Amino acid sequence: MPFKSKAQRRKFAELLVKGKITPEQFEEWNRETGSRNLPERVKPKPRPTAHKRKKAGARHKRTKREASKSRTPSARK
């Protein structure tokens, strides 16, 4: 898998020095990248947005039947 940015290449070089990856792994990635001009950093993908909330004034209107059910018997007169 090729490197995506210069920062990623530096990070893998650091891991190579620390001994966390093998020289063969680093060289394979380096070979696949080739001499491409890489960006300094890759921007993260934008997160999906949550569902939009309804406006404060927009409320659910009750039907006549729902409204009459919620009334007390004395209020129906």
Explain the overall architecture.
The chain is mainly alpha-helical. The protein has a domain at 1-34. 40% of the residues lie in helices and 0% in strands. The chain is built from three helices and no strands. The protein has helices at residues 6-18, 23-33, 64-70. The longest helix has 13 residues, at 6-18. It starts with 5 loop residues before the first helix and ends in a 7-residue tail after the last helix. The relative contact order is 0.15. The model has no long low-confidence stretch (mean pLDDT 82).
Write the SSE topology.
Layout: H1 6-18, H2 23-33, H3 64-70
Overall outline: rod-shaped
What letter string, H or E per element, gives the SSE order?
Answer: HHH
Rg over CA atoms: 31 Å
Percentage of residues in strands: under 5%
Summarize the structure.
40% of the residues lie in helices and 0% in strands.
Question: Which key features would you list for this structure?
Answer:
77 residues, mainly alpha
